[in-house]
From TrEMBL:
The chain crosses the membrane at residues 219-244. This is Ig-like domain-containing protein. It comes from the Eukaryota. Keywords: Membrane, Transmembrane, Transmembrane helix. It comes from Cirrhinus molitorella.
Amino acid sequence: MSWQAVVVKPLVFVRSGSSAELTCTYNTHASEGFTLEWRYAAPGTPAVQAQRVLYYNGRLYWVNSWEGRMALVQNPPVLGVASIRITSAEISDAGLYICEVTNPNDWSSSGHGLINLTVLVPPSVPVCQLQGNTYMRNDVTLSCHSSQGLPTPIYSWHRQQNTVPLPPDSFVEDQHTGSLMLHNLSDAFAGTYTCKASNELGQAACSITLRVTYGGTGAVIGGVLMGIFLVLLLTGVTVTYVTWNRKKHVQNTYANELRCVFKRLCTRCDV
């Protein structure tokens, strides 16, 4: 038989939440033994592993929960139209659909057509994150990512209004990955940064506040200075103690000698 016995629209794009019609027509008159079968394979699943969605052989049989969300455009499908309609497309509906028609009194075998359904989704609310330590003269990276979005979202970063623009060589923005690298931080970098994820269906945003601190190298220098101060303080205390101890010893010795001399003058000194 000719593969044109079954005609489909191979590529279908639909926005999430809208109805999607998967067109399938056939060039024969339904007779005894006529059957229609629709199968579905999730993205990445081979066509040979597609699972049955519905089956018609004079009676209509639905599989699992498809009946509540899908309907035949023509019911019964015996007048050349085997199309189906998804009432409210979801992300999980995306994938490969196979329409297969069998009419043994007219064809020597069955005819089938393949349809790829793509469900378009606006970007989900992205997540903004900061990587690195926000110390003076450090480099940090702001990241932004939406878990959902088709077509793939484009990301753009903006600072809060009424702020001085950053020098062009102080940052690198990647609109595909959503990263914003900031180089050699200073007080001028402080503020709120907003990331916007957008595609043809909509946009969503998140914000993050950057505070630049005097840590890092400054903290190390401060720690070294504090250590030197403590060493000097300890040295001073030690010297003071030794000097005081020696002075006291001299004073005690001198007092003992005076007492001895006084005793000799009075009587005698046994020392």
